[in-house]
Each structure stands twice: as structure tokens, then as C-alpha cells.
Amino acid sequence: MNSMESMFALASEADDSFSNASTWERGGQLWASNEQRTLTCCRVVDETHDVKTFEFRVGDGLPVRFEPGQFMTVSAIVQGQAVERCYTISSPPTRPWLVSITVKRVPDGVMSNWLHENMKPGTLLRAYGPSGAFTPTAAPAAKSLYLSAGSGVTPLMSMTRASIDLGLNRDVVFVHSARTPADIIFREELRRLVGLSPRLRTYFVCEGAGDEGWSGPTGRLSLQLLSQWVPDYAEREVFTCGPAGYMNAVRELLREGGHDPARYHQESFDIGAGIAAEPAAPESTAAHDTFTVKLARSSKAFAMSASETVLSAARKAGVAIPSSCSQGICGTCKTKVLEGTVDMKHNGGIREREVQKGFRLLCCSRPTSDLVLEL
């Protein structure tokens, strides 16, 4: 095993070594997914007319360890309000001294517009540590199929860059969908990477030809087109990222084509879409039940209804707990429950081994008894 490959092995071992699966060793320090650090912008790259890549170094100049496909939650004060958004790390972990996010400017997107208008070399940005389970290290395979649309290309680009850097010689087919040829993010780099790896193939499909002399397929990805490009798609581990509608369509397309759902993986939130609505309370919850929540470190306490999530109740009580997606996806609010029980309905933001160690996602946990939290 060479030094680059051992980096991924160490990242996987870190999951067993630390109580938080999203905590990685950084030059003797720990950067947990619920801990903020300062990033310094080093470079801004125009990818398309409305997409930019922002490259950062960590304030202390130390390397960052993460897995390809993971994301960070960045924070900024925009028009006097604190705003947090999740963005996938588009750079590979094989280049740990620079961490980049690739952001599409969205109409009315508070954070994306702020980044496009304000971020330049030397600008500081606060961010929480890497997090997320959408990574090929969780489902290693000899043959993979990457399906993306729009800015959903970013986690798959990190995976592809890492695989090329490591010389893993994996059989990867990368199919990307875009509105027009001008909207294809990383188009030229992907073409260059194909030249570096004979086992990497890329295909693009555009909704319209735009102003270019586009000779490729137009419309949307279909089972017929996928079968033509990737006849053995049913044998591949599939990783998908893009708008929710795209991922739903792809999942149905693969189901129709006989692909095993157990070999399908998708990023579960719209990148950069921001904090989502809090999950609804189960109808069976007895709203009149009231419980007490105590914080072991700060000695604070507050009362809450059984119909609320612990995160929501903590905010009402003035207790600041790091969070981002609020849907049990990102893992930012992961906290150890020292005493008591909760009903947790998460969406992949926590692993079973963490649950066994007593951790819960407060954004999607409702109390079923009095609680003592490690806060």
C-alpha cells in the first residue's frame, strides 16, 4: 500500500478511533464536523458563467483529511444575518493543503450570491469540519457509475480526481447532465482526465444545444441512452448527485433497468440549498408530554415538549448548537446522549456504530424521557 492509498485507510480507521465518524486527524489536531475553523481564500476560478470554484487553506496552514464526496458547512454574516450552507468539497483529499468548494450562483440564493460577490483571495470564511457518508470508501467496487446533473458534479469530481491521483486504475463511467454545453462544469478537466486514465469514460447530455455547435445528445438521460453508453450498468456501484427531481428520475430509471437498489447511493440534499424545514413530528407523539433536558458541561437546563426536536427546543432556550441541514443528513448536530432516550428519525447523517456509542442527531430526535446531553 503506497502513502496515498494509506491516507484513505487512515481516514477509514479514524471512524473507529474517534467517537465522531466525521472527525479527522489534522497534524495532531482534530477538526470535528461540529467545530468551526477559519478558511482563507487562495484562489477563485470561473468554471462557467454562473459557477465559481473557491479554493481555501485552513487558517493554521495544516492539511485537511477527508473522504472524497464529503461536504463542509460554511458560515457567513450576510446583511446582518448569520447564514450557513452545506457545500460538497470538490477538491480531492489527495491534495490536502487546499480545500475547494464549487458553487453555482442561484437566483435569490443568499449564500451563493454572497460568495460570488465577496469571495476573493485573502477573504476569510468560517467553516465546520468535513462530514457526510456519500463516499466510495463506504462501498468499494471495481466498477462504478457516476451520474450527476448541474452542480451535483462536485462530489463525483472529488472522487474522480482522487482516483486518478492515486493511480487506482478503477473502471469508472461518468455521465453528466447539463442545461446546455456552456453549463457543463469541469468539462475540459474531465476530458483531460480521460486521457490520463484508460479506464475512465465520460459522457455528457444537454437539455438543449445552446449557442454552441453541439453534436452530442440533447434532452434528458434515458434508459436507452444509458444502455448504449454503459451496457453493464447493472453490474456497477452507482453514485448519484444533483437536484432532487433528477435523482428521483435516475433512481426510477435504474429500477426499471433492473439495477440492484442496494448498489445505489445518492447525496440526499440539494447542494447549497440551505437549511431545510424541520422534520414533522410523528402523529403518535403525545404533544402534552414535557421533559427536562440538562447539559452536562454547561450545567444549563430547559424544558421541552415531546413534539419538538431537541435542536428546536434548545434554540428556543437560547442554547447554541451547531447545525446545518436540520433533516438528519449532514451530521453537524451530532451529540452524545448521556442519560435518557429519544426517538430519532434520521436520513443517513449518523452511522450505526455512532448510535451504539450513544450519539444522536438532535435535529431529528424527539425526547421520550428526561435527557442529559454531553454539551
Task: Set down the secondary structure blueprint.
Blueprint: H1 3-17, E1 24-26, E2 29-31, E3 36-48, E4 51-58, E5 71-78, E6 81-88, E7 99-104, H2 110-118, E8 124-128, E9 143-149, H3 153-166, E10 171-178, H4 187-196, E11 200-206, H5 223-229, E12 237-241, H6 244-256, E13 264-266, E14 290-295, E15 301-305, H7 310-316, E16 334-339, E17 342-344, H8 352-356, E18 359-361, E19 365-367, E20 371-373
Parallel strand pairs: 9-10, 9-12, 10-11, 12-13, 14-20
Antiparallel strand pairs: 1-2, 3-4, 3-8, 4-7, 5-6, 5-8, 14-15, 16-18, 16-20, 17-19
Organism: Paraburkholderia guartelaensis
Family: In the N-terminal section; belongs to the FAD-binding oxidoreductase type 6 family.
Protein name: Hybrid-cluster NAD(P)-dependent oxidoreductase
The major β-sheet equals: 6 strands, antiparallel
Query: What fraction of residues sit in β-strands?
Result: 25-35%
Q: Quickly give the structural class.
A: alpha/beta
Question: What is the CATH architecture term of the largest domain?
Answer: 3-Layer(aba) Sandwich
Q: How many E-type strands?
A: 20
State the fourth-level CATH superfamily of the largest domain: Nucleotide-binding domain of ferredoxin-NADP reductase (FNR) module
The first-to-last residue Cα distance is: 40 Å
CATH fold field value of the largest domain: Rossmann fold
Which regions are unreliable across 5 or more consecutive residues at pLDDT < 50? 1-29, 271-280, 283-287
Helical residues, percent: 10-25%
- Kindly report the spatial arrangement of strands forming the biggest sheet: 6-5-8-3-4-7
Domain 2Fe-2S ferredoxin-type: 291-375
Keywords: 2Fe-2S, FAD, Flavoprotein, Iron, Iron-sulfur, Metal-binding, Oxidoreductase
Domain FAD-binding FR-type: 34-137
Cofactor: FAD
